[in-house]
Amino acid sequence: MSLKDLKDVTYFDLNNQINIPKNNRIQLEKDHEALVAFFAENVEPNTMKFATLRDRFDYLLDNDFLEPGFVAKYDFSFIEKLYDYLLEQDFQFKSFMAAYKFYAQYALKTNDNTTYLESYTDRVAINALFYGDGNEELAMHLADEMIHQRYQPATPSFLNAGKSRRGELVSCFVIQSTDDMNSIGRVINSALQLSRIGGGVGMNLSNLREAGAPIKGIANAASGVVPVMKLLEDSFSYSNQLGQRQGAGVVYLNVFHPDIMSFLATKKENADEKIRVKTLSLGLTIPDKFYELAKANEPMYTFSPYDVERAYGTPFNYVDITAEYDNLVANPEITKYKINARDLETEISKLQQESGYPYIINIDMANRDSAVAGKIVSSNLCSEILQIQEPSKINDKQMYDHLGTDVSCNLGSINIANMMETTDFGQSIDSMMRALSFVSDMSKLDIVPSIRKGNDEAHAVGLGAMGLHGYLAKSHIMYGDEDSMDFTNVFFMMVNYYTLVSSNKIARERKETFKDFELSKYADGSYFEKYINGDWQPKSEKVAALFANHHIPTAEDWRQLAADVKQYGLYNRNRMAVAPTGSISYINDATSSLHPIVNRIEERQEKKIGKIYYPAPYLADDTIPYYVSAYDTDMRKVIDIYATAQQHIDQGMALTLFMRATLPEGLYEWKNGRTDKMTTRDLNILRNYAYKRGCKSVYYVRTFTDDDTEAGVNECVSCSI
User: Is the separation of the CB atoms in 576 and 464 below 8 Å?
Assistant: First the structure.
């Protein structure tokens, strides 16, 4: 039976019966039956068999499926030892969806796509060997982390590791343009190149002069940011990985840019085709001053980036708008435009209701909380990457007079429920950090020199987490209550601590730190003060019991770490970021990211296959009460969870807001006596709440409409872990 000719299979029907209650009960056992049938009817008959492991590797190497280089770094006896260990663990998928997703999207297949060439255990082994880079001890540790699903490399990393015909291991980038045609051309070229290799690209256009601004003394000559957005959208459409998927990008603009209203208008449902952008995502960088002006119901001024750059000698992105606002208003040399702050706030909410956009980056907060020298000016396609950038200067020959720095994102995720079962929290984190650092070290993206320079200087990574709601439900903790925040606080404090320990070890071993480490809050010790002087132990007995088998860092541990970091430095300028988790969370049988579930039984439309049903992890009679849909959850609880984690995370998190078009009665007290329909006021209140609670970003808004559809759903293919 060929994979292209699967007939008379039973697993889809069995899986669909999960959605048909029997005797007032969800038929969860049908999912296991579907899983068994899937292996019997699909996987086993269509998997190539080999007499020995040596025969398997010879076939894959001789037929150009695996890179020979990483395999040659090990004695084959060690590879056999690693496989023996993995097979002893007897890995089993826990749901039909997990197995289906792996074999459909991740498993290596023959060139004609008719036969599987690897199992999940095989993919884990190749990942461990590849990221181990010849270090047998590290390869064994990584194999242990991945086969027990404590660590999950990002989709491009897990999918491509070790393959000879592979895409890049990194698929998320952040670039910016300065206010000249050479730079605009370079950004378009960079977008083409990065999209070609499968990248999702965040682009900041805030430095560009506004529409109608003069060029070389000619009034009303500038076209502004919207035509550049159209060029970028066409670029992503053209550079689409040989037609395999649409290129993906997001354009960010500062709210104090004069083109802000026309920027937002590009996503309106009734936008003119001349300006409408269909596939680009939109994001805003919002300084504190905007919240201040909106709260006071004062008018606000937007400022010509060209004039600001002339006055301050630096691109618009690098001027502190909040600190300089009054000076900018008072400066007669700077062209400014008066608008109403609350009207803009309402426009943002209207668009979020319609489309889910724009993403929100609280840019002053990101910089205020940053421990490193330099300025964060933008983010990536999923709003969780917040790293410093330096602008480049490009001459008329399209050469760099000054090569600045941009950002590439090396991502991975902890499966929280499985991580809590580790016997050594620190060792697990160290293995993850070394795998991520390896991706950074081997990424040599010369096609965009500023990306390569930024990566070479920063060694930045983004270790995140998924499965929070599932673990809380398994532990009989309600999402958003005091125990859930207590757990989140301790867990992410520990991840922060042990990623610092690992980065410090790597710096000590290699005698190398990230560039300008000596200018950081890590070097002067100020970063560690809140941990040395605060109480970060569990507050409740229930949460303390969950961590009973783990060493929770004490004030003395933090004091010693501060001393070690001061002496030896850190290898990674950035360490943590919580990305959205897509298909890989299904494979891990984990709930997505840190969000609540959407449905206890999730319904997925799988292209030509039809509907597949996925029961929430750990769903059982005793956990059902702890699974409340995100759409029926007060979003302030979600914000509280994210804010609790954020205080330990040096970058950002892809925080999504889930809203119903008709809000459940009693969910938000400000709705009492008012309409039960979601309004712009509701989104204004929640965005401001996220800002006050210390969330650096809001990803997008998903709205469950009255006709049972979802608006604003944006599956982030490029950055999803």
Answer: yes
**Span 32-87, pLDDT tens digits:** 999 999 999 999 999 999 999 999 999 999 999 999 999 999 999 999 999 999 99
- Phi, psi angles (nearest 5°) of residue 24: 65, 25
- Rounded to 10°, the helix 76-88/136-147 angle is 20
Cα separation of 328 and 324, whole Å? 6
Q: Are 466 and 585 in contact (CB under 8 A)?
A: yes
Query: Could you say which of 182, 380, 504, 588 is catalytic?
Result: 380
Active site residue 172: no
Apex CA 409: angle with CA 407 and CA 413, to 5°? 160
| pLDDT attached to residue 531 | 98
Catalytic residue among 382, 695, 716, 719: 382
Kindly name the residue from 33, 118, 233, 384 that is annotated as catalytic: 384
Assess whether 380 carries a catalytic annotation. yes
Domain extents in the chain: 201-357
- pLDDT tens per residue across span 219-235: 788 899 999 999 999 99
Instruction: Name 124's Cβ contacts closer than 8 Å, sequence gap at least 6.
Output: 86, 91, 143, 146, 147
Q: How confident is the model at residue 712 (pLDDT cuts 50, 70, 90)?
A: low
Tokens encoding 629: 């849909």
Give catalytic status of residue 297 as yes or no. Answer: no
527 Cβ contact list (under 8 Å, min separation 6): 371, 520, 521, 562
